[in-house]
């Protein structure tokens, strides 16, 4: 089997997807991180595709190394690395289809049949009372937790943040014991994060995500050392070496790789090995609820240290909610997503919907 073509499509002007075609009629589908779509398309089609055309798609590690070498002089830590992730996911989809098994089987089998998920709210303009009502609604629907994003993004200690006030209202609404997660996207200095973190842990917050930027390893370590509440980070880094630094220097308690950023299945396995070596649980970063989520389900099914609920975005997403690109959309039931059992990713595209979103 040989790779004959690699195409990148931008759906609804914002969601980059990859199709890898072969001479045996098997096509693999992958997804790339949703920001900077035009850059990823160029990286996939102009930088990575030329080194893969004519190669055997079943050679997982070899093709990943080929892509890494092709992008090393450009920027393997962002645009090229995300593009690699989409192609790598598609290549694993091809392998599963060629051998008639789900991707989780290629990874070594599964330790769970379904994955618990928490509701991830990306809204930043809700008042504390509005956030509490929303959290209570999703708790009633069965979601295994609720995550807030109430800091001012790309800021430093901005006084407009409503983190503690929102968590206090949410706690009143959902009661004691229900997991509340807080993601501030690196908006605080270490001393401010510690001040806020102490209040959050008094409110029973499950984890405090990116209290400082991922590159501020010293700050993360200071926060982690000052609080008993778990500190989580990892959505904005890409390689196993980055995650080793995050653990050893940043002292984070929970690592959060995202398969559409972190090199696809091939690198995610190595990141998981690093996390397992240092006994750190994984909670994937996951805000794209179609192919990205499906890929995460296979990964989470296989990994023993994916012990907590995983992220599932609750905002409206056109390609899931308006005109779904999956023939059988995923459904959260009692707070769980089932792991697909079909060959490869185990899902089928609605090609008409896919073409529609690619043309808008």
Overview of the structural elements:
This protein has helices at 37-52, 60-71, 79-99, 103-106, 128-140, 163-174, 190-202, 217-226, 240-248, 264-277, 291-302, 318-321, 351-359; strands at 3-11, 15-22, 27-31, 114-120, 146-148, 180-183, 207-209, 231-233, 254-255, 310-313, 336-338. The protein is an alpha/beta fold and 360 residues long. Strands 4, 5, 6, 7, 8, 9, 10 and 11 form an 8-stranded mixed sheet that branches. Strand 4 (114-120), helix 5 and strand 5 form a beta-alpha-beta unit. Helix 1 packs across helix 3 and helix 7 (190-202) runs parallel beside helix 8. The two termini are 34 Å apart.
The CATH topology of the largest domain is given as TIM Barrel
Oligomer designation: single chain
pLDDT < 50 runs, ≥5 residues = none
Question: What distance lies between the first and last C-alpha atoms, to the nearest angstrom?
Answer: 34 Å
CATH class membership of the largest domain: Alpha Beta
- Assign the structural class, choosing from mainly alpha, mainly beta, alpha/beta, alpha+beta, or little secondary structure: alpha/beta
Overall pLDDT confidence: 96
Radius of gyration: 20 Å
Number of helical segments?
13
The SSE string, one letter per element, is EEEHHHHEHEHEHEHEHEHHEHEH
Domain count: the total is: 2
CATH architecture assignment of the largest domain: Alpha-Beta Barrel
Percentage of residues assigned to helices: 40-55%
Strand content: 5-15%
Strands, total number: 11
